[in-house]
């Protein structure tokens, strides 16, 4: 962020390096229920980001001293695979992954009805397989879908995306070059009715730019929500079709 000594031209003929308009999301693909052993799971592609989320629980808390008598605790582990970035990442947790785990958990916790499951834990694992900026937002989107897939009662879904400033212009959903060499990056997460559960900013923007960027990011979250919703509906439609197959045609009597 803010290392624009690379002198990158971020726009060509009014379009971004990857051909997007300033207010356009990267291509978004969501698949629900991809892991057989998790209670809920999701695979997401947000542009070049490829992320898996797995949810387990509500289940017994280990170690037991962490349990809360009035509610379930939520644990969120964000992990980046060594091969997910250009320069091999050292395996295991680091300062960045602790921070991202914490803010992502806090982005989801307000909508989870934890009081339904006292003394238990809901575990969310997010594995980044390929990173291209915005992995925390992709992880939160996948985790929200995986929580719903696990049947965890929630007040609503959470959708996330970032807005940024590059070459003096505001852009939606910055990709790696924009994130690395741009002036600002602001990831947010929100409920479909616009309640913000995550708001971070790296870099500098004016007050006016901040307002516009927030509107832009909120518009992006609304688009993400539609894709999350459709992915969940598609999965349950498919399950229904498998359980109640179309009326079978009467079989012809066998000629002996
Ligand atoms: O991924 P996100 O934007 O949520 O977090 P970030 O800390 O702003 O990282 C931005 C991007 O930098 C990541 O998505 C990766 O593409 C890249 N990165 C990297 O190449 N190596 C790392 N150890 C960490 C991040």
Descriptive overview:
It is a single chain. The protein has 256 residues and is α+β, with helices and mostly antiparallel strands. It has one domain: GHMP Kinase, N-terminal domain (Ribosomal Protein S5, domain 2, 2-Layer Sandwich). 28% of the residues lie in helices and 28% in strands. The protein has four helices and twelve strands, in the order ββββββαβαββαβββα. The strands form three sheets. The chain has a five-stranded mixed beta sheet with strand order 3-4-5-7-6. Strand 1 and strand 2 form a beta hairpin. Helix 1 packs across helix 2 and helix 2 packs parallel to helix 4. The radius of gyration is 21 Å and the shape is globular. The model has no long low-confidence stretch (mean pLDDT 94). Bound molecules: cytidine-5'-diphosphate.
**What strand line-up does the widest sheet have?**
3-4-5-7-6
What gap, in angstroms, lies between the N and C termini?
78 Å
Helix content: 25-40%
Number of helices in the DSSP assignment: 4
What is the H-and-E element order? EEEEEEHEHEEHEEEH
User: What ranges have pLDDT less than 50 throughout 5 or more consecutive residues?
Assistant: none
Shape: globular
The third-level CATH topology is Ribosomal Protein S5, domain 2
Beta-strand content bin: 25-35%
Oligomer: single chain
Largest sheet properties: 5 strands, mixed
CATH hierarchy, class: Alpha Beta
CA radius of gyration is: 21 Å
Structural class: alpha+beta
Overall number of strands = 12
Architecture in CATH? Answer: 2-Layer Sandwich
Could you name the CATH homologous superfamily?
GHMP Kinase, N-terminal domain
Mean pLDDT: 94
Number of domains: 1
